[in-house]
Amino acid sequence: MNARGSENVVPTTALLELCDFLKARGSTLALDEALSCALRQWMAVQSSEADADRGYQWKRLFLPSGSRLRMQYAGQWFYAEVEGDELFFEGQSVSPRGMTQMIAGDGRNAWRDLWIRLPEEKNWNRASLLRRDLLKREQPRPVSPLEAVSAAARSMSEALTASKVLLDYVNRQSERLTERRVSKHRRKDDTLSDDCRFD
Question: Taking the complete model, does pTM exceed 0.85, yes or no?
Answer without folding.
Answer: no
